[in-house]
């Protein structure tokens, strides 16, 4: 029956002009492969896809090795995992910190250390040597490096530097005071897309980083007692103060994303706590007068060391690839300074290399990434490791706190109780 | 309704002989490529698994007990039932209203086509339209302001109202399909019946009560079954309303959304919880199967025939 | 209206009519709004959501068409939907006829069996589908044809997933057809199969058209299966291309282009629908559960 239906379907498709192609072309395992297969997460036509296509063209010109790139965008992760689990799939693929755990669990990620020791052509340095320590730490898990990063990002406070050329509040309270002053001038200072719960959670998480340091959220997920820590209470009460001051845009819990951030780009509000990607994301909607800049969120307690959230995007190699050496060679080629510089110039993002300058609006946060004494993954990497607690306990409660439905005390009590119930 | 025309005889045998060859291709394709793979879901619901390449372990009934003791899951379960019942009720009212007027209305075919439109518009377009309508500064609030009804301005997409707004959206997108469906039955009623009723002095509402409603009960039963199936699975429109970033708030979660969150690992690269997702699927299928059987009961009652 | 119709009734009817017309206007307005926005700059869409474009950005269509590969995707969509719908109907029509008119005791349970298929949520089916897809392509490449096209697998699942709805509705339709014609044909000496082909199928044409069009509409909008089974952008469909375009807005911010993409995807459906509209409505008229 299976073959019968398949033959009918196949015949029908062929008859209507489809051309059958091999699902997977696996080049022979001889020394010099002709083709590498690359499955990308970008959609065709995005600045990154265009940039990487031109890097690939250069590489083919120089080495004769072709790179067959498929821009799969949505669903790329599942495709990669399924294909590699069944012995197929690309030689290398796009990934990000959030996906390392998933790719590891599915056996799609192996030991990347050899790749990091590969020399970048014409520079005499290895891939490992051109990346900042903080970035190397962020892309690693307990099994080592997860991928070769080309772009990094961070979370910080975006502001309009045409209004505040010397914006440099020392503490979170200084920032609140400034915002309160602005509100007195009949202007809601902070844009917030409150329907995106993880954007709401940026506030509490970034403040927690400055009171209790990285890893606190993970403790909150695993240990009900962590909810009683004074640093946690301090962070939550700071957020309560922010909410009570009514500094967010009108009806912020009901904006349809991206209405909030677009209003910020249009100059209706001065601040937005968001990722370093926000500048490029809203570029086409920006008012001419607005000059966006991003800085790390000012700390509640300036005495603590500087912690910065680091995210990264990059390429991982299929552990079952028949051409691991060729894949490493290509990645080393792509990591040349002239290529990675273009992450800033072509795609308006922060390049991964220490020596590649970020676009002007991102320079301050790139500086913090280079100098950070400690790094945190976005939400302590918890969203990937414990999505259940993150989605079912933390985000709903945080939404209520940010939305002003509950006060700090209730938040802490409920959080402790619900975590206790989940941990069991 | 008789299943075969003439019982007994060579013809009957020939017809019986045709039964299996005509049925089997579809039945086998359905069985082999749909039913059997779906049974895999039942097996999966007793285990813990994150997809190909990851390790599988048996957990017995833990997925089911875990779900049924989770407040969020039970809330999403109640949301789903609430949505199916309330939207179903509204859809029935709209269908009934259409039955009263559309039979004779001028441009009736055009109205049906226009109401049917949302059924074929991609959820992406719907999601975009929502932002422009329901945003705090969107068309609805602006219109309320202009018409002097500013007290009615609301944060429509906020946690308090989002579920009601979603239900309205489901009504908007689904109603066209059901209106077209029941109107097909209304159009099948011989116009002479209405003629007679009118001559005897029955108003439009009485005509509806004594002619249209009884004679379309079959179709209403089919429509009810189709809605029960679709309602329990409500998913796409919620994602279109809530957007492609972030996870839907608990207030807006249905069973299908809960399942989706587990399949995708919460959209943030988390490990998929396919065992629990499969358990939700089994529960959804069971509920719907009960509803289908109930709606078939309605249909199976005595048919009213006209001469 | 009759001279004796009660005031309440006519007031209610006027109200319902007004409500329906408002609804119709709203839907038409939506279409016009999407069309207008597809001709605006991204900034204008947010600054001036309701107005007429300041400058008519026809290049949005060029951008949407070229950057997201909509050309190839359109061909893929047309091909997949056409092949799938033909196969669905080839399987569903005989099966529904058999159950409705030829069956004995098993026909009732068979009808319910198909109906329950509609209730199986897709997610329960996703993992086995991927496994079958991979197994099938390997089997074909290693043993049978040497090549395989993942679009064939997609078509296969489109067909089986559409069978429950199609069979369920067509059973209702065939049941509603009068039996006398079959008897007359039999008396004329026609074989049962000839009766089916030459009498019953033409009679059922409106219902068949309806089911075919409804299947075509929903398959045209399908994205998930293609996303999971086709690891090749050149083989992806129109809606997947649009979805990718949408999810990458954060890198491109091309809202005008996105609306243009929506128009490119939706417009053929609207045109087709209004083209076939009368036929669908009349198909339904004589159709489903009369």
UniProtKB/TrEMBL annotation, chain A:
User: What keywords is this UniProt entry annotated with?
Assistant: Signal, Transport
What start-end ranges are recorded for coiled-coil regions in this protein? Answer: none
InterPro entries attached to this UniProt entry: SBP
Q: Which GO terms describe its biological process?
A: maltodextrin transmembrane transport; maltose transport
Tell me the domain of life: Bacteria
What GO cellular-component annotations does this UniProt entry give? ATP-binding cassette (ABC) transporter complex, substrate-binding subunit-containing
One Pfam family from the record:
SBP_bac_1
An example molecular function term from Gene Ontology annotations: maltose binding
Which positions make up the signal peptide? 1-20
What protein family does this chain belong to?
Belongs to the bacterial solute-binding protein 1 family.
Q: What is this protein called?
A: Raffinose/stachyose/melibiose transport system substrate-binding protein
Provenance organism: Nonomuraea soli
Automatic annotation (TrEMBL), chain B:
Q: Which residues form a coiled coil?
A: none
**Biological process, per Gene Ontology:** transmembrane transport
Cellular compartments per GO CC? plasma membrane
Boundaries of every ABC transmembrane type-1 domain copy: 77-295
Report membrane topology.
Multi-pass membrane protein
> Where's it found, cell-wise?
Cell membrane
What coarse category fits the chief subcellular location reported for this protein? membrane
Q: Where are the transmembrane segments?
A: 22-44, 81-102, 114-134, 161-183, 219-242, 277-294
Keywords per UniProt: Cell membrane, Membrane, Transmembrane, Transmembrane helix, Transport
Sequence similarity: Belongs to the binding-protein-dependent transport system permease family.
The molecule here is called Raffinose/stachyose/melibiose transport system permease protein
Specify the species: Nonomuraea soli
Automatic annotation (TrEMBL), chain C:
* Major subcellular location class: membrane
Does the record carry Ribosomal protein as a key word?
no
Name a biological process GO annotation.
transmembrane transport
Does the keyword section mention Transport?
Answer: yes
Tell me which Gene3D superfamilies the record gives: MetI-like
Subcellular location(s): the record lists: Cell membrane
Give the record's keywords alphabetically: Cell membrane, Membrane, Transmembrane, Transmembrane helix, Transport
Q: Which GO cellular component terms are attached?
A: plasma membrane
Q: Which residues form the ABC transmembrane type-1 domain?
A: 74-276
**InterPro entries assigned to the protein according to its UniProt record, in alphabetical order:** BP-dep_ABC_trans_perm (IPR050901), MetI-like (IPR000515), MetI-like_sf (IPR035906)
Membrane-crossing segments per the record: 12-36, 78-100, 112-135, 155-174, 207-230, 255-276
Q: How does it sit in the membrane?
A: Multi-pass membrane protein
> Family per UniProt?
Belongs to the binding-protein-dependent transport system permease family.
Q: What is this protein called?
A: N-acetylglucosamine transport system permease protein
Q: To which species is this protein native? A: Nonomuraea soli
